[in-house]
Inverse folding.
């Protein structure tokens, strides 16, 4: 299934502001943590020369606006009005007091969850998908290629492409492609094209299949395929759902809203914030505004990255330069990594099956500004069911890692404190993950 060709006039109209009233609580700017870090994030390196990348090195893959955002140092970057209008379809997302969960746990903690599952796709991923599609369309790109794990990112980019007149082609990690057919159908409903990865459609995919014919795939493999196709198509660009700095930037609408919503709830300080971590975008989006306040104002909010024990880049990986993909087509990124050839088990939280971690998140952890913990899958999904039976929302398998860590913490609390959980998405299309636990 392909999208219909879009004329220049139609594309121009798709980018015009519709004059839709946007809720005032939707942020007007993205927050850039780079402005407040005590030390700059190590630069990305050219894979051939191992010298810091220049804008021209990234131009085959990304539009100029996103390249500028990747290396930006200013604290706030204005959100285009068209992007804010689209955000207004579901933003601000709710911050909810989990009173029933508190009662079940018998904790003195006041637990809040920031719920990104209200987006049209059901996760936090459209926050950057819309922005990336907008800047690509503005530059004249006609097609975006990308990877996806569990499928939330592929569906989000397909959604954004439908709104902004772009063809979207997705390589989904085979383990999730086979286990989550409704995610593929969701992408196709928005006009996206989805292939299992590794595939025989690319040189990278064919090479992987020749060596590992029975592989379940990985995000690193899928990235290699998507990057290869974009690099060889002059009308295409590559779009990444996590890891890179500009993706972290776009997601900060989450944490900015949460700070305001906590104030409105009479909670001027959050003691501990938990977010799930795969490539880092959801975690960064929630925690970076809190971390920025820690750095500027001296607050002491504890920030916790909650990763799967099956893919523990932050807790067991090495902090060094590594490729973002298996084939070595991406720049070298300074990050916590398990090695770009690491293939994690086929866990249910497909969105967290990545060998590395965002350079910005990695830098924050390396500086001691953020903590990390690894959660076993059984513990995560059991916590997801406990949350669902208390609060009514079935969390995405990825989100359950943050839920599990927060529940464990809340059970040990002896004094009142404020706990915030990043609920990155709902699990309506991931219900088979829970089948062993119900």
């Amino acid at each position: 299934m392909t999208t219909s060709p879009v004329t220049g006039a139609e594309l121009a109209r798709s980018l015009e502001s519709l004059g839709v009233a946007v809720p005032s609580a939707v942020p007007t700017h993205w927050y850039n943590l780079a402005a407040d870090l005590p030390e700059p994030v190590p630069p990305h390196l050219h894979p051939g020369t191992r010298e810091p990348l220049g804008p021209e090195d990234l131009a085959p893959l990304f539009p100029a606006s996103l390249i500028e955002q990747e290396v930006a140092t200013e604290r706030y970057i204005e959100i285009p009005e068209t992007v804010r209008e689209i955000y207004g379809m579901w933003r601000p997302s709710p911050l909810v007091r989990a009173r029933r969960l508190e009662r079940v746990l018998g904790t003195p903690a006041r637990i809040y969850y920031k719920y990104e599952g209200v987006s049209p796709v059901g996760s936090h991923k459209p926050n950057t998908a819309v922005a990336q599609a907008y800047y690509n369309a503005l530059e004249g790109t006609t097609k975006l290629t990308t990877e996806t794990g569990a499928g939330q990112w592929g569906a989000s980019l397909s959604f954004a492409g439908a709104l902004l007149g772009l063809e979207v082609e997705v390589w989904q990690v085979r383990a999730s492609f086979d286990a989550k057919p409704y995610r593929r159908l969701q992408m196709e409903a928005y006009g996206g094209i989805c292939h299992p990865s590794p595939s025989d459609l690319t040189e990278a995919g064919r090479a992987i299949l020749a060596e590992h014919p029975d592989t379940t795939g990985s995000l690193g493999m899928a990235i290699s395929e998507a990057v290869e196709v974009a690099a060889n198509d002059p009308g295409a660009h590559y779009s990444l759902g996590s890891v890179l700095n500009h993706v972290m930037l776009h997601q900060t609408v989450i944490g900015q809203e949460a700070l305001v919503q906590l104030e409105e709830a009479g909670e001027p300080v959050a003691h501990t914030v938990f977010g799930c971590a795969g490539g880092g975008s959801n975690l960064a989006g929630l925690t970076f505004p809190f971390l920025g306040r820690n750095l500027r104002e001296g607050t002491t909010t504890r920030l916790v990255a909650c990763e799967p024990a099956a893919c523990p880049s932050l807790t067991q990986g090495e902090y060094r330069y590594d490729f973002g993909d298996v084939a070595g087509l991406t720049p070298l990124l300074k990050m916590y990594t398990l090695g770009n050839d690491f293939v994690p088990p086929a866990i249910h939280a497909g969105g967290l099956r990545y060998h590395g971690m965002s350079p910005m998140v990695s830098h924050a952890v390396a500086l001691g500004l953020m903590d990390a913990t690894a959660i076993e899958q059984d513990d995560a999904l059991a916590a997801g069911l406990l949350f669902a039976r208390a609060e009514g929302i079935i969390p995405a398998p990825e989100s359950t890692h943050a839920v599990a860590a927060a529940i464990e913490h809340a059970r040990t609390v002896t004094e009142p404190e404020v706990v915030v959980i990043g609920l990155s998405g709902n699990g309506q299309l991931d219900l088979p993950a829970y089948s062993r636990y119900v």
In short: The mean pLDDT is 93. The chain has 18 helices and 14 strands. Residues 85-122+246-434 form a domain with the Rossmann fold fold (CATH 3.40.50.1100). The longest strand covers residues 167-173.
